[in-house]
Amino acid sequence: MKTSTTPPRHLPVQQGFTLIELLIVMSIIGILATLVGPKLFDKVGSSKVKAAQAQISMLESALDSYRLDIGLYPPTLEGLRSNIDQHPLWSGPYIRKAVPKDPWGESYHYQLPGTHNNDLNLYSLGADGNNGGTGENQDIANW
Q1: Which of 11, 33, 53, 91 has a CA between 20 and 30 Å from the CA of residue 1?
Q2: Is the separation of the CB atoms in 102 and 108 below 8 Å?
Q3: Bond prior to 8 in cis (omega within 30° of 0)
Q4: Secondary structure tally for the chain: helices H, strands E
């Protein structure tokens, strides 16, 4: 008598997800993204405003240190980093690195004498780059 050495055939096991299951999961992810996404992006905008406020405060402190040494404010913010006027009382640099850009990649606006403050105006125009605005588009200033 002959015995068969071939293994018995098994039906293939089905692996993976069905199209319906995938569509349900993708729908749930889409719903969660629409609910959570705007709140996350709002937090990013408000953190940029807070970063701009912190940078303005830091620059204002550096400007005050310059004024204490020299007796007046520098003509430009670059005067905080290097002794442009070759003033003998200059004891800087008053900032460690280059003058920072605002969180939206623009230069801070610096006015001497200030129109809002008696001494100086230091401000960023916000995300939109225009005067005024609300939220992330608001002007961030030292007044």
Answers
A1: 11
A2: yes
A3: no
A4: 1, 3
Q: Which residues pair with 123 in a beta bridge?
A: 109, 141
Distance, in Å, from the CA atom of 28 to the CA atom of 43, rounded to the nearest integer, reads 23
Contact 78, 99 (CB under 8 A): yes
Are the CB atoms for 81 and 70 separated by under 8 Å?
Answer: no
pLDDT tens digits, one per residue of 40-95:
666 666 789 999 999 999 999 999 999 999 999 999 999 999 988 888 999 989 99
| Model pTM above 0.70 | no
**In terms of DSSP bridges, do strands 109-111 and 121-124 run parallel, antiparallel, or are they unpaired?**
antiparallel
Q: Which residue has the tokens 């008598």?
A: 1
As a whole number of angstroms, the distance between CA 75 and CA 91 comes to 16
**Gyration radius of the chain's alpha carbons:** 30
